[in-house]
């Protein structure tokens, strides 16, 4: 880098890559003002199809199909990785770091799996590795945890960090769409991929929670440490019962630090309608952070998309350039070693739970069900019982008081063995208290 110009290498020119080209071109003046440079340009970009790349019309970029040409170019000081995937992206980032280049990535899959190693490698090479865009796209949440809240002790991070599932749950809740209809609409609008498995199965959110928990608690967290349950079993009936109880169903990523360890989970959770996360709709993301000193803060915005994600990437580039010009490395200042915080056994996690079951509408059925709850030390906070199928069956919905996941799961296992219980239809975790809306709606409250 000379005093006036910095050359960037770009790996990948897809959705985010083209957004980056637009931001760098269109915000050039602002970017130069923020960094004190005269020019910030992409010198070389890795693409798969040279003809298609030339068709974009971006000026003065050399396109190559060989990523190593980008990461070994001596004029390039900062490499941006937005090609996605694991193996090649990792190899190219490692090569770039070893060549003394700073790296900015949006790759959550890679950072969740190999983030700790790559960060250590960056530190050894005295360069920076930044990854703001890997969590919640356009929301500067990593910067908030790293800088804005750096003087506080973070105790809990609760997030809606997957736009696809939030879009689907919003449509199911507000427009009464079924799961399949909501997924189809999300795919048509480009909010869900043709293979939505990692979104609806919770894996995408789990990867982001690994990154958030590591950074928030300065601890080592692996993907296997996360309790993951996706939204594939969610039905409109569950959402409707939630509404009656004053809850909204959200796919929630939760990382919380207790005295004896930490919990990291992703699962559909009923949150009270008045909770700020309940109002986060459509494809938007939000992350709620609890700090000992600051209390509660919420960060809200677009979790994906070409320009929002590109904004996060280019803002990381601005930070890198500033550090370069000041001759400091944020990495070098920080002790990047992580404390080891034990991950709690998922059975010991304490929460309230919701269960919906079908039972025979016969004398003594309710007593048998309550006996199973008592045996497992699980007590009810709310219960709704309504007859259906000409009175042959009853639908029972129970919200428990705080209990452990282990005791709750054991209760469900024991209920399945009862003659009077014909099926357990659904179960969810519940955050916060139940609103007193049942009486107002004249529901059968036992
Ligand atoms: N899209 C978002 O809103 C968003 C938000 C946050 C984070 N991210 C992350 O950002 C990264 C990029 O996402 P994206 O949506 O921009 O993906 P994308 O549209 O698929 O773009 C990736 C680009 O990289 C190219 N590429 C991949 N492997 C290549 C190779 N071996 N050689 C040459 N070119 C190669 C692809 O070319 P082909 O198309 O020819 O395969 C494609 O043009 C991913 O890690 C993603 O998780 C994306």
UniProtKB/TrEMBL annotation:
Its EC number is 1.1.1.3. Pfam families: ACT (PF01842), Homoserine_dh (PF00742), NAD_binding_3 (PF03447). PROSITE patterns: ACT, HOMOSER_DHGENASE. It comes from the Bacteria. Pathway: Amino-acid biosynthesis; L-methionine biosynthesis via de novo pathway; L-homoserine from L-aspartate: step 3/3; Amino-acid biosynthesis; L-threonine biosynthesis; L-threonine from L-aspartate: step 3/5. GO terms for molecular function: homoserine dehydrogenase activity. It catalyses: L-homoserine + NADP(+) = L-aspartate 4-semialdehyde + NADPH + H(+). The keyword Transmembrane applies. It comes from Geomicrobium sediminis. The chain crosses the membrane at residues 6-24. The keyword Transmembrane helix applies. This is Homoserine dehydrogenase. Keywords: Amino-acid biosynthesis, Membrane, Methionine biosynthesis, NADP, Oxidoreductase, Threonine biosynthesis, Transmembrane, Transmembrane helix. Belongs to the homoserine dehydrogenase family. Its cofactor is a metal cation.
């Amino acid at each position: 880098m000379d005093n006036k110009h910095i050359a960037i290498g770009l790996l990948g020119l897809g959705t985010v890559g083209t957004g980056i080209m637009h931001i760098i071109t269109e915000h050039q003046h602002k970017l130069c003002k923020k960094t004190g440079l005269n020019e910030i340009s992409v010198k070389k970009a890795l693409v798969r199809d040279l003809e298609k790349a030339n068709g974009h019309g971006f000026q003065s970029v050399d396109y190559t199909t060989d990523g190593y040409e980008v990461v070994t170019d001596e004029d390039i000081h900062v490499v941006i990785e937005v090609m996605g995937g694991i193996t090649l992206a990792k190899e190219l980032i490692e090569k770039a770091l070893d060549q003394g280049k700073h790296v900015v990535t949006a790759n959550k899959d890679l950072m969740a799996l190999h983030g700790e190693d790559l960060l250590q490698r960056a530190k050894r090479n005295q360069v920076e590795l930044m990854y703001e865009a890997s969590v919640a796209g356009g929301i500067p949440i990593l910067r908030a945890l790293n800088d804005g809240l750096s003087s506080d002790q973070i105790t809990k991070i609760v997030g809606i960090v997957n736009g696809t599932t939030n879009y689907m749950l919003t449509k199911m809740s507000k427009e009464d769409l079924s799961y399949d209809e909501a997924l189809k609409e999300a795919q048509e609008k480009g909010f869900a991929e043709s293979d939505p498995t990692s979104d609806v199965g919770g894996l995408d959110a789990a990867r982001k929670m690994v990154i958030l928990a590591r950074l928030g608690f300065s601890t080592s967290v692996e993907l296997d440490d996360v309790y993951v349950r996706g939204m594939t079993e969610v039905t409109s009936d569950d959402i409707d019962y939630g509404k009656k109880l004053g809850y909204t169903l959200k796919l929630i990523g939760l990382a919380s630090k207790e005295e004896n360890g930490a919990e990291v989970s992703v699962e559909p959770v009923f949150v009270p309608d008045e909770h700020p996360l309940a109002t986060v709709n459509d494809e938007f993301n939000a992350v709620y952070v609890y700090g000992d000193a600051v209390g509660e803060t919420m960060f809200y915005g677009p979790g994906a998309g070409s320009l929002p994600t590109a904004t996060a990437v280019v803002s990381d580039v601005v930070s890198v350039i500033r550090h370069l010009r000041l001759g400091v490395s944020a990495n070098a200042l920080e002790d990047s070693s992580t404390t080891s915080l034990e991950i709690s056994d998922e059975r010991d996690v304490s929460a309230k739970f919701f269960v919906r079951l079908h039972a025979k509408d016969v004398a003594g059925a309710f007593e048998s069900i309550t006996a199973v709850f008592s045996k497992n030390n699980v007590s009810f906070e709310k219960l709704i019982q309504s007859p259906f199928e000409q009175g042959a069956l009853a639908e029972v919905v129970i919200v428990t008081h705080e209990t452990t996941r282990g005791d709750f799961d054991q209760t469900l296992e024991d209920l399945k063995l009862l003659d009077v219980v014909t099926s357990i239809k659904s179960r969810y975790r519940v955050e916060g208290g139940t609103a007193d809306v049942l009486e107002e709606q004249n529901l059968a409250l036992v």
